Amino acid sequence: VPDTPSTEAVDNIADTRKVPAELIAREVARRRTFGIISHPDAGKTTLTEKLLLFSGAIQLAGTVKARKSGRHATSDWMEIEKQRGISVASSVMQFEYRDHVVNLLDTPGHQDFSEDTYRVLTAVDSALMVIDAAKGVEEQTIKLLNVCRMRATPILTFMNKMDRETRDPLELLDEVESVLKIQCAPVTWPIGMGKNFRGVYHLLRDEILLFKAGSERADQEFEVVKGIDNPRLSEMFPLEIEQLKMEVELVHGASHPFDLEAFLAGTQTPVFFGSAINNFGVREILNALLDWAPAPRPRDASVRAVTPVEAPFSGFVFKIQANMDPAHRDRIAFLRVCSGRFERGMKVKHLRLNREIKVSSVVTFMASSREQVEEAFAGDIIGLPNHGNMQIGDSFSEGEQLQFTGIPYFAPDFFRMVRIRNPLKIKQLHKGLQQLGEEGAVQVFKPVHGGDLILGAVGVLQFEVVASRLLNEYGVDAVFEGTSISSARWISSDDKKALADFERSSAGANVAYDAANNMAYLATSGVNLKLTQERWPQLTFHATREHA
Ligand code: G4P
To answer: Is the C-alpha dihedral spanning 299, 301, 302, 305 positive or negative?
Structure first.
């Protein structure tokens, strides 16, 4: 018996497993995966809701909003759990619009701002930045934009709340350019503001979209007047039109014309003005997202770049969320598909564990219905139920040894020292923190010179979650205390001796190792950090590190 099958048999096998290349290419081309970045209260929830309304994914305004108000309640354990359930459901919203499949990833803001927020941005192909036009660029927007910059993510900008008294539009653009260091290309320009907000002028189409206080309806149409010189406009609001003409001239002279290449390179952002609550300017932003934002792009997988249209399935986990039932330690791992077609029930390889797993139950995220989805393509997010054997940064494939890169850990901004009330529980504490650390719920640092473990987080809610979960899942009653640490930096150097000297020096009192055994310096102040850096020029101090 020949040990190689006949060519006919090979063809047959290939036929049953082969996914037509054109099908994959078509599905990839119509996908857009993005996240909204904004400072709390800029209007992210409102805008999300309007986007879903447009797509027909939800019929009623208030749906998303209701979820959000649930999220703002108290922070005791049950509440956090409940909120988590809610946020699992709303953390990815998939909808169709104009024959495109749009995946909108929620970047939690507010009090539950955490490392998740950052990591979600590693799974998107573009981002929509929402700015409250009365306030301008705010703190959390700056942080989130810096994360986008790490991967040169293309950014669209929406200046929201033009129905209120806002800051001068030119000044807003200036601020974005100088603070966020990204070129602005206004695409629409506001006519008036607040009570005198008349609409926006589309600079590329020479059209005026007339403002009307919005309804909750998805199919709302705003009247369009063609041409800035249209006599109708001067009749309707003579003062504002004169002003607009002046401004447009200024804008044409002083700002940058929209340049698709620069946008895709992440160096220029097209800017739209509008009012989310009035549904005004929202369709323009959605259309821009479909027309300009990139479909899924190739991803670095260490050994090679993986292109979205290749037939074998691959993807990586960027977020892990504890599920509703703490008794079962159920978790959902959020996986971004990077290539091929995922089919429910298929076998995939968990590359870190070198183990094949059969994925029979997956969670997907159609905003309109919570059906089990049968297939997914590059750009889509699938939720894998996970009993603790998946970590952030884990890669999956149909067998090839890939390791997707670019999942960052960020230097924490908040620190706590952990003590336990019952010293006999020390083992459980370490086990719990190890697992929670792997899951990315918190960062754990062990000082070289003994002492208590130090926890680091980018949002304080992370500590509450960890305390509750230690108690509920590991039976450890831990006390968190403030520390004198103000920031952390990971240390690297080619000079082994310098590293050892550093650890033995007086600075060594502030040296610790994280869960993945990377050396870190825990600084007590900005000045302390600066001085230490100056004293140790052989060492590099990193504010981020990549998943190993
Ligand atoms: P967030 O998710 O970014 O935190 O913001 P969210 O959408 O919740 O909006 C924050 C507040 O801003 C809300 O008011 C919302 O109604 C309001 N808002 C959003 N878009 C616009 C807009 O275009 N114009 C105006 N004038 N307001 C806008 P709130 O009073 O906090 O909540 P609510 O009582 O309206 O629910």
So the answer is: negative
Give the Å distance between the CA of 46 and the centre of ligand 1.
6
Residue-by-residue DSSP string for 259-328: -HHHHHTTSEEEEEE-BGGGTBTHHHHHHHHHHHSPPP--EE-SSSEEPTTSSS-EEEEEEEEE-S-GGG
> Of all protein residues, whose CA lies closest to atom 17 belonging to ligand 1?
43
Prediction ipTM score: 0.97
pTM of the model: 0.84
Number of neighbours of residue 500 by Cβ within 10 angstroms: 11
> Which amino acid, residue 523?
A
> For the chain, what percentages of helix, strand and coil (3-state, to nearest 5) are there?
35, 30, 35
Q: Are 405 and 544 in contact (CB under 8 A)?
A: no
pLDDT digits (tens, 9 = 90+) for 119-159: 899 999 999 999 999 999 998 899 899 889 988 999 999 99
Is 344 exposed, middle or buried, given 0-12, 13-18 or 19+ CB atoms closer than 10 A?
Answer: middle
Query: What is the CB neighbour count within 10 angstroms for residue 1?
Result: 2
User: Do residues 415 and 453 make contact, with C-beta atoms less than 8 angstroms apart?
Assistant: no
Specify the ligand 1 atom closest to the Cα of 48: 7
